[in-house]
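Priority: medium. Attachment 1 of 2:
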């Protein structure tokens, strides 16, 4: 790697880590280009050489808080005896963390990032490859996918391939489970329901399991 590329990568990290510090210390609503640049020790013009808009900074900084989820989902899935159980356990872990940290998950999955958001995920993991250590191979396609519909589909397809779900039901299961999560997540994010994260997780999982187990091929 050339010295210039190393320097650019180092600068990129400075700004992302400064944004993460502001999130921890002051919250998302306090993030501005100027504040991030000041905290990193540079001016706003320099920051714009690396980030075209503040939403990109927020996305990358939010990914810094995402590792507890990616670490734990691997542990959750290890408990599954087959691909269908692993799929449901992955949902359980995702619900738990997304309802505990709705602003982080909103920034990662729902915030408008403009064009090519998938490339942003790939770039993050290229810069922080250690975040992928101990991640199961079957989970990696989902981690590199920001689109929620596509993200969960890979695990549904595995369950169908193993004969637990009819292939004709893949689209319906994938869409319905995502809609259930999105509905609860919107309520939590906007404070429309006074559920605790645990209550929200239990309710959401109840409906997800009803959808999945109703459409499966046989009991396991």
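Attachment 2 of 2:
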């Amino acid at each position: 790697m050339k010295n210039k590329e190393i320097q650019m990568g180092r600068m990129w990290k400075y700004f992302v880590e400064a944004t993460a510090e502001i999130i921890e210390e002051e919250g998302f609503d306090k993030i501005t280009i100027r504040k991030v640049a000041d905290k990193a020790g540079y001016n706003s013009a320099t920051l714009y050489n690396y980030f075209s808009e503040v939403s990109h900074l927020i996305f990358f900084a939010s990914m810094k808080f995402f590792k507890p989820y990616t670490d734990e989902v691997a542990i959750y899935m290890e408990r599954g005896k087959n691909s269908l159980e692993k799929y449901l356990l992955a949902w359980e872990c995702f619900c738990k963390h997304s309802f505990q940290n709705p602003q982080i998950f909103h920034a990662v999955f729902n915030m408008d990032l403009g064009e090519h958001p998938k490339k942003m995920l790939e770039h993050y993991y290229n810069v922080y490859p250690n975040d992928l250590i101990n991640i199961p191979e079957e989970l990696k396609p989902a981690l590199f996918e920001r689109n929620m519909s596509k993200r969960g589909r890979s695990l549904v397809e595995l369950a169908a391939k193993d004969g637990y779900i009819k292939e004709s039901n893949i689209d319906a299961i994938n869409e319905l489970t995502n809609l259930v999560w999105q509905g609860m997540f919107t309520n939590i994010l906007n404070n429309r329901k006074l559920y605790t994260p645990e209550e929200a997780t239990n309710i959401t999982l109840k409906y997800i399991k009803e959808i999945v187990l109703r459409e499966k091929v046989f009991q396991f």
